[in-house]
Amino acid sequence: MPKINLLYVITKLELGGAQRHVLSLIRTLDKERFRLFLFTAQEGLLFEEALSIERLQVRKSRYLERPINPVKDILAIFEIKHFIKENDIDIVHTHSSKAGILGRLAAKLAKARFIVHTVHGWSFNENQPFILRKIYILLERFCASFTDKIVVVSEYDKKIGLNLAIGSREKFEVVRYGIDYKEFNEPKTDGVRKEFGVQEDELLVGMIGCFKPQKSPLDFLRLANLITKNYKAKFILIGDGVLRKKIEKAVSRHGLKDKVILTGWRRDISCLLSAMDIFTLTSLWEGLPVSVLEAMRLSRPVIATDTGGIAEVIKQGENGYLVCRKDVSALAEKLETLLKDPSLRKQIGDKARDSLGDDFRLENMAAKVKGIYESAR
Predict the structure, then answer these.
(1) pLDDT value of residue 377
(2) Which range marks the domain in which residue 281 is found?
(3) I need a labelling partner for 292 at 20 to 30 A (CA). Which of 5, 21, 259, 308 fits?
(4) Would you give the end-to-end CA distance of the chain in angstroms?
(5) Closest C-alpha among 171, 42, 30, 155 to residue 104
(6) 187 lies in a domain?
(7) Are 341 and 370 part of one and the same domain?
(8) What are residue 4's phi and psi, to 5 degrees?
(9) Paired strand residues for 157
(10) How far apart are CA 358 and CA 342, in angstroms?
(11) 141 and 223: one domain?
């Protein structure tokens, strides 16, 4: 049986959930069945990791980048199209919003046999200006018309797509994010608390995410400002991005230099999560955040904003807490409840771990995606 030439297109290999998902998927696929290619931007924290994957051909784009640039974007389309034709690609699987649009347009122009797109949260959201949001919806509708399968990570995103007439029902497949249950099996701090000067009697509250408006990291700092006035706790923020300077100024303005830890990007996510007593997420919009699933797997109680498909895994007061977006007071109330009660923290954390079923195993995710590829024959 001839190998299937499979191309992944993703905008940038930064240290995010979508990027980690793609590389995990690539590692699990049978290299005897698939000839694998990855097309991405020139820079990215996970670029070296991608290059280390056996029998994966990685192509750095000259034009693909996150900011909108009409000239470069058009050139990127034709660059991807040429790559598809040159390598006789059978299946094109795009990830992330911008690569999802440009990559699918290129695949259509190149007459690729089968086109798949994974939605890691839609390209449009309620926080965008009306006209811009409408343009993105129209682009998603157009690309969906020639996309064979649209993979979503939550029922929430599937419902949004169908309500906005983005693709027909039979095109949608819900495939949950896959976690390596072996990696996120037992807590292992590896000296993280000591590294950052967290005392034994201090509680550690954390968040992981890119410093961008979507994650609303300044709300995390507002939460820290409220809580550290009355509780012996420290807050750890893992990530980096365009809001870094604003975050540093806010830390200084609120007098939180001894209370907030900014780690930058880190690879030892399981160790960092294990070191936390409570995990929080202040996002304004999401698909289904991988960091929440990983925290739950490590029995960490989660307090998160009710966005995207997160309510599909967190049941209020049972295995975590959900609050409305931007409601820092509600975040503080739930956090105080957990800070005061160690037995409740353990109870919520244990239920969080127990509630994650086989759907979230890396092996099951890979098997479902492979099934989609095989359906292209």
Answers:
(1) 67
(2) 192-357
(3) 259
(4) 11
(5) 171
(6) no
(7) no
(8) -95, 125
(9) none
(10) 28
(11) no
Is the residue at 205 inside a domain?
Answer: yes
Domain check: are 212 and 270 in the same one? yes
pLDDT value at residue 86: 97
- Asked if residue 220 and residue 208 are part of one domain, the reply reads yes
Q: How many domains does the chain have?
A: 2
128 and 220 assigned to the same domain: no
From first to last of its 377 residues, the chain has per-residue pLDDT tens of 789 999 999 999 988 889 999 999 999 999 999 999 999 999 888 999 999 999 999 999 999 998 899 999 999 999 999 999 999 999 999 999 999 999 999 999 999 999 999 999 899 988 889 999 999 999 999 999 999 999 999 999 999 999 999 999 999 999 999 999 999 988 888 899 999 999 999 999 999 999 999 999 999 999 999 999 999 999 999 999 999 999 999 999 999 999 999 999 998 999 999 999 999 999 999 989 999 999 999 999 999 999 999 999 999 999 999 999 999 999 999 999 999 999 999 999 999 999 998 889 999 999 999 999 999 86
The answer to whether position 185 is within a domain reads: no
Kindly state whether residues 157 and 209 are assigned to the same domain. no
Could you tell me the CATH number of the domain that includes residue 129? 3.40.50.2000
pTM of the complete model? 0.93
Tokens at 17, concatenated: 């959930």
Q: Regarding beta strands 172-174 and 278-281, do their DSSP bridges make them parallel or antiparallel, or are they unpaired? A: unpaired
**Sheet with 278-281: strands ordered across:** 260-264, 233-238, 203-208, 278-281, 302-305, 321-323
Amino acid at 263: T
Same domain, 218 and 235: yes
Position 186 in a domain: no
